[in-house]
Write a structure and sequence with these properties.
Distance between the termini: 60 Å
Helix content: 55-70%
Largest sheet: 2 strands, antiparallel
Number of helices: 7
Number of strands: 2
Length: about 170
C-alpha cells in the first residue's frame, strides 16, 4: 500500500471544493461530516477513513477512487481497474450478460499479462545472476540452484584444445 500523504489529500480536497464553488460548511453538510473535521482534513491534520472519503467524493461529485489514491488507501493500478469495471457496468448499450462476459475477458487478459510480466521478471533475475568462478576459471553451481557445489579447483568436462589448433 502506498504511504499516506494527508497534506496532499487536503490540498486536493480544498481545490475540488473551490472548483465546485462550495464553502467548507456546505461541503461538510453535504458529506455528513462536521465542519471542523473537514477543515482538519483539508489542512492535513486528520487522516479520514475510506467511508468519509466516499461521502466527500459523493458530495463533490468526483471519483472516490481518486481520493483513495490521494490518501494512499488504493494504488493507481487498482483505481484504473475499478474505473474500467465501472465504465463497463455503467454502459447502457450492452446487456448484463454481455457486461459479465466482457469483465471475464478483461480479467483473463489482466491475468495473462501479469503472468507474462512475472515470467519476464524471473528471466531478468535469472540472467542477472552472476556465475561464480573458481580460481581455474571453471564455474561452480551453487546450492541455491538446486545443484551440489563442485569441489574447489575441479575442472569442467570440456575438452581443451590448444589455442593454435585449426577450427574443424
Amino acid at each position: 500500500m502506498a504511504s499516506l500523504n494527508v497534506g496532499n489529500l487536503g490540498e486536493y480536497l480544498r481545490e475540488q471544493r473551490r472548483t465546485a464553488q462550495l464553502s467548507l460548511r456546505q461541503l461538510a453538510d453535504a458529506a455528513g461530516v462536521s465542519n471542523p473535521y473537514l477543515s482538519q482534513i483539508e489542512r492535513g491534520l486528520r487522516k479520514p477513513s475510506a467511508e468519509v472519503l466516499q461521502q466527500v467524493a459523493k458530495a463533490l461529485r468526483i471519483s472516490a477512487e481518486t481520493l483513495y489514491v490521494r490518501a494512499g488507501i488504493l494504488d493507481e493500478k487498482e483505481r484504473e481497474e475499478l474505473e474500467t469495471r465501472a465504465v463497463i457496468l455503467a454502459d447502457p448499450s450492452i446487456n448484463e450478460r454481455q457486461k459479465q462476459v466482457l469483465l471475464q475477458i478483461y480479467d483473463s487478459f489482466r491475468k495473462e499479462n501479469a503472468a507474462e510480466a512475472a515470467a519476464a521478471a524471473a528471466q531478468v533475475v535469472q540472467a542477472a545472476r552472476p556465475a561464480e568462478a573458481d580460481h581455474d576459471g571453471a564455474t561452480e553451481a551453487t546450492e541455491a540452484d538446486g545443484v551440489a557445489e563442485a569441489p574447489a579447483g575441479a575442472r569442467t568436462a570440456v575438452a581443451e584444445r590448444p589455442a593454435d589448433a585449426p577450427d574443424a
